[in-house]
Amino acid sequence: MMRTVKLLLVAQLIASTSALAPPNNQQNQPRQQQTEISRRDALITSTTVATILLNGAMEAKAAETIDMDAINAARAKGPTSVGELIGGATGAGSTTSNDNREKVDMDKINAARSKAGNPITARSKMIVPNSDPGPLMGIRGGNKGKSVVKIPRVGYSLYKTPAEQAEKATSVALRSGILHIDVGTLYGSNGEVAKSLQKYLNIGISGLGLAKEEKPELLERLDAAYSAGSDKSVSTVSSGAPNSIAPAPDGSVGRRGRRDQLFVSHKISNAEQSTDPVKVRRAVKKTIKELGCTYLDMVSIHSPLTDSERRLETYKTLLNLRDSGFVKTVGVCNYGLAALKEIAAADLELPAVNQLELSPFNAHKEIVDWCSSYGIAVSCGAWSRLSSADGPTEGWEAVSKIAAAKGMTKAQVLVRWSLQKGYICVPRSAAKAKVEKVAIAENSYGGVNQEAAYVLSKEEMDTLDSLDVGYKAGKLGRIDGWDASDIQGPDWDPTDFV
Predict the structure, then answer these.
(1) Angle CA(380)–CA(385)–CA(390) in degrees, nearest 5?
(2) What b/e string do you get for 289-303 counting C-beta neighbours within 10 Å, with b at 16 or more?
(3) Do residues 465 and 199 lie in contact, with contact meaning Cβ atoms separated by under 8 Å?
(4) Cα 325 to Cα 139, 151, 274, 296, distances in angstroms
(5) I want to staple 331 with a disulfide (CB 3.0 to 4.6 A). Which of 46, 115, 300, 435 is the partner?
(6) What is this structure's pTM?
(7) Three-state SS at 136
(8) What is the pLDDT of residues 125-179, one digit of tens each?
């Protein structure tokens, strides 16, 4: 019955979209006013439709899970065949006996079902390649993975951003339309990031103060990226892009509305991992207080470079914090197959996201395939070392050729590659020089959608995919969640630690 009602609601909502276009007498109104009216109405409808469809999908998924213990108990108490039911009703004449009817050992079936862990069962692919991905992705939330959390596909990482530049960098990102902020204890900049976040949450974009601090030409670049991302959001959601969900309406106002649209992702350090749940909870609550965000959208274990007991106890505590409302979802970073299967073997819910140093030069195919099969989204960490002296020189030249042919930067090519592969990505840049601030906008969702020509063709994607040489973190010299002393030569990689 509920499913029928939901389908009727969807039909009514879709039918109502024909009335969303502004009337002819509004065509000459200022562009901003038109955009606010049409986009708000369109996205309200899109959000409602998406929510109904997602809830319906979740209910359908939940309906597939059968409590066989209850069924077995019912079978043991009452008739389990038509013949038995008739015999029981008439008292005689039954031709079917309990001894002769076919028996099914549901204990064996349930054991087989739970062998991979519960609710850790293979499902439809999480990672869906798409040449025109929407701005948001639905990832696993609480309620044993049945709820959905919206994460912006493109964020901004504070990795390697000097603390004195963190406030400005965050403000530039927000003005460019980036609402996914990737922070971490090891980045040492949460206090400065909080200054920008509080200005945005309390007042909005105008409260960031960039209009007084930056030149108009830079602000135009930032606003162009914001507008391109906003416009693209509407078109991709209405086109039904795979694994995409609608953003909140642009008309959402007030601190709560802005907080709902913001996605703050935090990484706890190895030192904060602990077998003592109290210590982990204190570390997370300290970060919430530092950032002034009331809750965190995602908290991840920054690396697996501790021991099994600390990893698992820390992870359990993060799940408890999620269920208590302090965190919306839980992730991991730099986890290889062994570390992921360690979570599965402990019969714990799998993480929503696994952030990796993922690029055309190190595709981590086996890890990505496993994550996709078990409902784990994959996020690409910052690529700041790829263009360094230790980077993959020949492959980098191939990226340069594609970038030059399309009028893009090399970083934009990597962002487009990750988006079209179905990944989340969190590029980074400092914010001291103008070129660095421009790079934040260029690498935003809007920045890589400003021109139709930025879409990578199948041939270009194939070229990038062919560059995979398993470029390890040890060879690249990347340090993100560990110390230089942890690196054991050029073939070392955190995903191989466990």
Answers:
(1) 135
(2) eebebebbbbbbbbb
(3) no
(4) 17, 17, 21, 9
(5) 300
(6) 0.75
(7) strand
(8) 889 999 989 999 999 998 877 789 999 999 999 999 999 999 999 999 999 999 9
